[in-house]
Design a protein that fits this description.
Layout lengths: L1 H23 L6 H5 L6 E6 L2 E4 L2 E4 L1 E4 L1 E12 L4 E11 L2 E12 L4 E10 L10 E2 L3 E4 L5 E26 L3 E14 L5 E10 L6 E6 L18 E7 L5 E2 L3 E12 L2 E4 L2 E6 L5 E2 L2 E6 L2 E6 L6 E4 L3 E5 L2 E5 L5 H26 L1
Parallel strand pairs: 16-20
Antiparallel strand pairs: 1-15, 1-19, 2-3, 4-14, 5-11, 5-17, 6-7, 6-14, 6-15, 7-8, 8-11, 9-13, 10-11, 11-12, 12-13, 17-18, 17-22, 18-24, 19-23, 21-22, 24-25
Keywords: Membrane, Transmembrane, Transmembrane helix
Protein name: Thermopsin
Organism: Sulfuracidifex tepidarius
Length: 355
């Protein structure tokens, strides 16, 4: 009797150790910055699907149909145009697409234009013939074939604030991607949301289509493309395009990034200050947390963990309200731990009943 109980508990301990090892397997967001430390990466905020605790990464997984960023540029001085990019990964069936919603600002002219891009990352010869929209197909400086569209130019004044938006819907035979821009302040779209590009990807049959953020595996595990490594979501500053790197004489901007969950836009669980899934970069920007927003200014560029995300965003007509999170980080950790215990207890109960 006692030997049987000992075997049961020994088996359960063994399973719990295996479960812990599997659940903790994660990507390393610094893999690119460590391997190529002299490369200039895009700076802002990005969710890689992991929390950082010391040198350890604790993964999580998010699936959503909509991502929205908040951007406010209070002051800027740059001799060259620069981009503010919303970059996400879309999985359709067994294929992965990179989506980009961009606002390019030209400080010397006080003008901006909008841009959208789609790239199939599944394989080197993945076609884009099943992609349709108002844009065109070009070959980038990296030799890859992109779908791109450009809209503008428009004038802006400071402070200049807006929301870049990417929405995804699908039927049984197609996936529709809406690239959007909501003006808040300092532009002719103030209070209006404009979906400036409507892209459709056609398939014989669609059984899944969502934007993914995952810290459990690298994109490069299934894609041969260089420079696209993660299932992440990024809201970052970079050069205008074609892999350009930009320097700023002065910048003060504020960012936040949200995904749709149960009909509301909530903060991603965690953020880093750099984006890896884009060719453009900056040479002298840093990101700091200010409340539930993130301030981007000029400074000595480095790459680090910004901590947990907080708050949500509520859009009501022409007004946009950034809402502070009502749950503290400690409460969030406690709730996550309790949920983990409940799931583990349920698994153990099923195992015990079957022995």
């Amino acid at each position: 009797m006692y030997s049987l109980k000992f075997m049961k508990w020994g088996f359960l301990v063994f399973l719990s150790l295996i479960f812990a090892q599997v659940s903790m397997a994660s990507i390393n967001p610094y893999v690119d910055t460590q391997e190529y430390p002299f490369h200039s990466y895009a700076i802002g905020i990005a969710s890689y699907g992991v929390y950082q605790k010391g040198n350890s990464m604790i993964p999580y997984f998010i699936k959503t149909d909509s991502v929205v960023g908040f951007v406010r540029v209070d002051s800027v001085n740059s001799e060259n145009p620069f981009s503010i990019q919303l970059n996400v990964m879309l999985i359709v069936n067994d294929q992965t697409f990179w989506l980009q919603d961009v606002v390019v600002m030209n400080p010397s002219e006080d003008q901006f234009y909008l841009s959208s891009s789609v790239l199939n990352l599944t394989s080197l010869d993945s076609p884009l013939h099943n992609v349709s929209g108002d844009g065109s197909f070009i070959q980038g400086s990296d030799g890859q074939c992109y779908y791109v569209n450009y809209i503008g130019n428009y004038y802006y004044s400071l402070p200049f604030s807006f929301l870049p938006i990417i929405n995804v819907t699908h039927s049984t035979s197609e996936v529709r991607i809406l690239f959007g821009f909501k003006g808040i302040e300092g532009n002719c779209f103030d209070g209006k949301t404009v979906f400036f590009d409507n892209v459709v990807i056609h398939f014989p049959y669609v059984y899944r289509a969502s934007i993914y953020v995952s810290g459990y595996n690298y994109l490069s595990d299934s894609s041969p493309y260089q420079g696209f490594s993660f299932y992440d979501a990024e809201l970052v500053f970079g050069g205008e395009g074609n892999g350009k790197v930009v320097s700023f004489n002065q910048l003060e901007a504020f960012l936040s990034l949200y995904y749709q969950k149960d009909g509301k836009y909530v903060s991603f669980p965690s953020y880093f200050d750099f984006g890896s899934d884009t060719a453009e970069g900056t040479s002298n920007l840093v990101t700091h947390r200010v409340g539930n927003l993130f301030e981007v200014t000029t400074g000595r560029q480095s790459y680090y963990y910004l901590g947990r995300g907080e708050g949500s965003i509520s859009v009501d007509g022409g007004k946009t309200l950034v809402v502070q999170n009502t749950i503290s980080p400690i409460q969030s950790v406690i709730l996550s731990f309790l949920l983990f215990i409940l799931i583990l207890a349920s698994i153990f109960r099923k195992i015990i009943s079957s022995i």
